[in-house]
Amino acid sequence: MATGTFAESGADLELVGIHKRFPGFTAIEELNLTIPAGSFFALLGPSGCGKTTTLRLVAGLEAPTAGRILLGGNDVTDQKSFQRPVNTVFQSYALFPHMTVLENVAFGLRRRKMADPLEKAHEVLRLVELDHLGGRRPQQLSGGQQQRVALARAIVNRPALLLLDEPLGALDLKLRRQMQLELKTIQEDIGLTFLHVTHDQEEAMTMADTIAVMNKGRIEQMGAPQELYELPKTSFVANFLGQSNLFTGPVVNTTSTGISVDVAGQKITVPIDRAHRTSGEITIGVRPEKITLHSRKPARDAGVNVLGPGQVIDVSFSGVSTQYLVDVPGAGNLIVFAQNMTFGSDVQEGDKVWLSWTI
Ligand code: ATP
C-alpha cells in the first residue's frame, strides 16, 4: 500500500468503569480499558456480548449509565457525537450513490468548509490506491473497492480515533482476508488509533495488536493475539480463539514444575506456571495442532502427556490439513489436526489410536 504524505497520530482511548443499562437489560458491566495511541485494538466476542454498544458509546451515539470516556486525556463523555474527533466505518459502506468516489471522500471536508477538499480527498484516495477511480460512482466499484472508499472517507478529516464495526463483513472470504492485511498496512502507515469490532477470531488475530475478548458485557481477557491463543485464562477464551480440547479433572499431584490432573484414570500434566488453580477440579486445554496420533501406545517419557487408547470417529479433509475426531472413553471427543501425524493418511475411521503432546 502506498505511503503518502498522510501522517497523523491517533489519541489514547480510555474507558473507565463503563456501565450501560437498557430498560430491563444490562449490556455492559464495569468495562475498563486503555487503548494506546496509534494501536490497532480489536473487541472480539459472540453476538450480543456488547461490542457494538461499546462502539456506540465511544462514538457518542449512546450515553453510558455510569463511567467516563477519555480521548487523548480529554473527557468526552458529555460531548455530542459530532463534537468528538471520531469516525466510524460500517459494514454497509453508506456511500452516496449519486456522487463520484472523489466527491464522496470530499463530502465531509466540504461540509466543514475545509480548504482544498478535492486535493485532500485525492491524497487519501492515493493512500488506499483508488486515485485512478475517483471519477466513478460507488456502484461501479467492487465490494473491496467500496470498502476502501468508505475507509478513505472516514480518515480524510484525520480523526483521532477510527471505529470499525465489522467493516469487512459484507465481503467474500478471499477478499476479506486480503482486505484484513490492507487495512492493517494502512493503519500502520497513518498511525491512527483503530478500534475494531468483530466476531471473527481470525480477523482479530490477523489485524490487531491487542484483542479484548468480550463475553456477556464484560472483558474476559485482554492481550496480544499470540498471548491469548497460547495462554487463555478461561475455557471461553480458549474456545473462542481457535479450537481447544478441554479436560476437567481433580488434581492428583503437584510438584515445583507441574500439576497433574486425573483424566479418565490417566495422569495429564501442565506446567505449574500455566495453572490458575492448584487444588480441586481444574480444566486443562490442549490445542488440536499440538497433538500427535500414534498407532501404538507411545512411551510415557518425561515432559510428554499420553492419553488413550481412543477410536477415530471422524476424518475430514479441509485442503490445508486433516481433522480427526477421536473418542477417548472418559475424556470425551478430542480434535486433532494432521500436521503432527506419525502415520499420516493411513488413519481411518474406526482405527484405535493413542494421543501424545509435549507438556
Ligand atoms: P452483534 O455481533 O450481534 O452485533 P454485539 O456484541 O455487538 O452483537 P450489542 O449490539 O452491543 O451486541 O448488544 C448487546 C446486548 O444489548 C444485546 O443483548 C442486545 O440485545 C442488547 N441491546 C442493544 N441495544 C439495545 C437497546 N437499545 N435496548 C435494549 N437492549 C439492547
UniProtKB/TrEMBL annotation:
The primary gene name is: potA
Tell me which family the UniProt entry assigns to this protein. Answer: Belongs to the ABC transporter superfamily. Spermidine/putrescine importer (TC 3.A.1.11.1) family.
Which controlled-vocabulary keywords does the entry list? ATP-binding, Cell membrane, Membrane, Nucleotide-binding, Translocase, Transport
Quote the function comment for this protein.
Part of the ABC transporter complex PotABCD involved in spermidine/putrescine import. Responsible for energy coupling to the transport system.
Q: Which organism is it from?
A: Rhodoglobus vestalii
**Locate the ABC transporter domain: which residues?**
13-241
Q: Name one Pfam family in it.
A: TOBE_2
Subunit details: The complex is composed of two ATP-binding proteins (PotA), two transmembrane proteins (PotB and PotC) and a solute-binding protein (PotD).
Which EC main class describes this enzyme? translocase
Reactions catalysed: ATP + H2O + polyamine-[polyamine-binding protein]Side 1 = ADP + phosphate + polyamineSide 2 + [polyamine-binding protein]Side 1
The GO cellular component terms are: ATP-binding cassette (ABC) transporter complex
The record's annotation in InterPro entries points to: AAA+_ATPase, ABC_SmlMolc_Importer, ABC_transporter-like_ATP-bd, ABC_transporter-like_CS, Mo/tungstate-bd_C_term_dom, P-loop_NTPase, PotA-like, Transp-assoc_OB_typ2
A GO molecular-function descriptor: ATP hydrolysis activity
NCBIfam families on file: potA
Which Gene3D superfamilies does the entry mention? 2.40.50.100, P-loop containing nucleotide triphosphate hydrolases
Enzyme Commission number: 7.6.2.11
Check the UniProt entry and state the signal peptide residues, or none: none
Indicate what this protein is called per its UniProt record: Spermidine/putrescine import ATP-binding protein PotA
